[in-house]
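Predict the holo structure. Ligand: zinc ion.
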Amino acid sequence: MPPVIPSRLKVGVDVPWVTSWSQEKQGGVGPCPTVDGRVAALQTWKPGVGKPLYSRNHLRRQRDSVRAMLCPMCGEPTPEGDRWSQTGQFHAAGVLRARGFGHALPVDLDDDRVLLDAGSIAPLHMRCALTSLQRCPHLGAMPDHELKGFPPAWVVAPLYVEARQPITGRAVAAVTSLQLLGVTGDRDPGWRARLSQD
Ligand SMILES: [Zn+2]
């Protein structure tokens, strides 16, 4: 086997903290503190070793980032007032329910309440958002460069895969990623009309 040489790229500076590296193998499921000890998909932890896999988030770091509001770029906590979403999209709760996301939303959340659907990407510090916009070709090519302020309230929704319990072989639901939805103070009374638009 060839020797594993630490990368010259710095985690949190050249490469986002949340990004997976080629030496971080995915595999197996087990209890994970990121989901209060429930079963989650696991991955070894060797950031900075091998090559960065920019299109893939590290499973554990992704869950950590959403659960603890850690900036996906630098890995440090984002304080309220300095949380910015680059790729999030505003949708009324009713639209998300119509798309099958209902299980993730609190039942008492009105259909016309506007949510900032950040997907699997926790909000960034302003300075980190600006840096990543300069460095990441994918983000730079996006038509919408507007940073959206992340609301002070949010909902976390786990996504699951079916996995096999290693000892018993039983099928278990394992959390892969945590999805993040900011709850804004806005309402969209015309949300039903938007169901057919996108
Ligand atoms: Zn940051």
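The CA atoms of residues 73 and 160 lie 25 Å apart. Residues 19-196 form one domain.
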